[in-house]
Predict the 3D structure of the following.
Amino acid sequence: AKDSSSEEAAEDKSKSFDHEHESHHDHDATISVDVHNILDLFKEQLHETEERLLAAIHHDHKEHHPNASPAPKSYRTADR
């Protein structure tokens, strides 16, 4: 009789663990979606800022050096 009761207790523990484990995964999924959305927004803003900065640099460059060749489109391609 002792053996069967201890086995049942072990089963109950594993059941509650499974339940907690599942809800934990759901929570993680929600967080990762939010982070991806934030990263996308951040990337868009970064890109817009980059475009504005490059435009300003390009404009500045033309004023100071009217005959110079245009500045590279992106500093990233210039680095490589």
